[in-house]
């Protein structure tokens, strides 16, 4: 059959999501996630005005050909807006293909390579004591790996740091909502790299003392260090055997990771802001990283992300797909199906969506004993209640801006 209709839905059940709804001539519907945090309508316009009109009447089963058409045919390639739009269509077509085959998507991607996907939670606290409380809550839920983020003495609110609710439940949405009538500006936070570098090794030491060596602990640097600062941190935390140090320095200059690699054996992860295999070329061929952090939503869909992981697999590099709440449940399911099929899977980030979000996006993936599984529902296994979605109108929301103490804009 052929593509008969492409709708682009925008809904905000707790946060903003962009969903491509592709309908075939025989009535099969596929969903794709095109959410780009803080720039949602750029993707909406790209899909509605520039992509959808070119795909009506095309054979929806030609997934690879359509991906290449959307990627290679335009003069302007790559970039987060383009690749999020490509991702939305690509996921929807894979969803349709698996629904027509009557199987969960991972079976079209080569079948399961494992029984489940090792997942990590977000544990944070304004103090080390609060952080440890949060970690205990997640360990009790069955998590075997946690990302640890802590407040820094002398600094106020820091992105990614929040005291969790009892039981380790992570109720924190960092994308700030704009008040009615207020200026549409992101919140601004103050940062001090030197204070952070002095404090963080003590955080790792305290967590290891509390939880021993079996718990996998990860940390996100949020691109805030220079290469030499990142090298220092990687070396300082090396005795505590971190699972990885993520985004230790901005990723635009891939060669910067050479310096970090030279000074430490701490595993490195990067790439949640990357959107194509070309962003990884030096990092992969020189083995400067250990984990790929892209998501299907921001790297051209399942087809684009599989390209990256095939390339990475040649060099023994594993996946660590981005799984925050600004990837919709549709995008999360795409990550899970691909991760289950990949030989070089590493770990999956798991920041559960709110109950409000899950009242709009009905999921079949499950979490048990530290592992995620995409489920056995045909397709991606996610349904969109469009009537419920229509009740949650778009609300402007932005992640914070980061400034140093002197007021200068810093990397976020």
Automatic annotation (TrEMBL):
A GO term for molecular function: mannonate dehydratase activity
Biological process annotations from GO: amino acid catabolic process; carbohydrate catabolic process
InterPro entries for this protein: D-mannonate_dehydratase-like, DgoD-like, Enolase-like_C_sf, Enolase-like_N, Enolase_C-like, Mandel_Rmase/mucon_lact_enz_CS, Mandelate_racemase_C, Mandelate_racemase_N_dom
Source organism, top-level taxon: Bacteria
Record field: transmembrane: none
Coiled coil: none
Mandelate racemase/muconate lactonizing enzyme C-terminal domain ranges (all copies): 128-267
Record-linked SMART domains: MR_MLE
Protein name per Swiss-Prot or TrEMBL: D-galactonate dehydratase family protein
């Amino acid at each position: 059959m052929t593509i008969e209709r492409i709708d682009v839905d925008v809904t905000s059940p707790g946060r903003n999501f962009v969903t491509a709804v592709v309908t075939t001539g025989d009535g099969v519907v596929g969903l794709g996630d095109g959410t780009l945090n803080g720039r949602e309508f750029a993707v909406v316009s790209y899909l509605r005005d520039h992509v959808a009109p070119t795909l009506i009447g095309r054979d929806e089963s030609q997934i690879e050909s359509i991906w290449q058409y959307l990627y290679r045919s335009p003069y302007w390639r790559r970039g987060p807006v383009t690749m999020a739009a490509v991702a939305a269509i690509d996921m929807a077509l894979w969803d349709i293909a698996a629904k027509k085959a009557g199987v969960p998507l991972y079976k079209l991607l080569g079948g399961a390579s494992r029984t489940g996907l090792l997942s990590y939670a977000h544990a944070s606290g304004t103090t080390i004591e609060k952080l440890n409380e949060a970690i205990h809550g997640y360990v009790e839920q069955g998590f075997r790996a946690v990302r640890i983020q802590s407040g820094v003495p002398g600094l106020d609110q820091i992105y990614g740091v929040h005291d969790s609710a009892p039981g380790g439940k992570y109720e924190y949405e960092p994308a700030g909502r704009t008040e009615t009538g207020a200026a549409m500006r992101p919140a601004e936070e103050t940062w001090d790299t030197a204070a952070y570098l002095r404090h963080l090794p003590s955080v790792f030491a305290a967590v290891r003392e509390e939880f021993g060596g079996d718990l996998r602990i990860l940390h996100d640097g949020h691109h805030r260090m220079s290469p030499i600062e990142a090298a220092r941190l990687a070396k300082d935390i090396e005795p505590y055997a971190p699972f990885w140090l993520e985004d230790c320095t901005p990723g635009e200059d891939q060669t910067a990771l050479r310096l970090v690699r030279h000074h430490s054996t701490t595993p490195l992860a990067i790439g949640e802001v990357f959107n194509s295999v070309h962003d990884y070329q030096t990092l992969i061929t020189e083995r400067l990283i250990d984990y790929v952090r892209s998501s299907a939503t921001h790297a051209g869909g399942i087809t684009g992300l599989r390209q990256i992981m095939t390339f990475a697999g040649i060099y023994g590099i594993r996946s660590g797909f981005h799984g925050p709440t600004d990837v919709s449940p549709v995008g999360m399911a795409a990550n899970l199906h691909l991760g289950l099929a990949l030989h070089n899977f590493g770990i999956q980030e798991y920041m559960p969506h709110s109950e409000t979000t899950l009242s709009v996006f009905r999921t079949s993936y499950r979490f048990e004993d530290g592992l995620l599984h995409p489920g056995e529902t045909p397709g991606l296994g996610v349904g969109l209640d469009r009537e419920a979605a229509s009740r949650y109108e778009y609300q402007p929301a932005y992640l914070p801006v980061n400034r140093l103490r002197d007021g200068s804009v810093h990397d976020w």
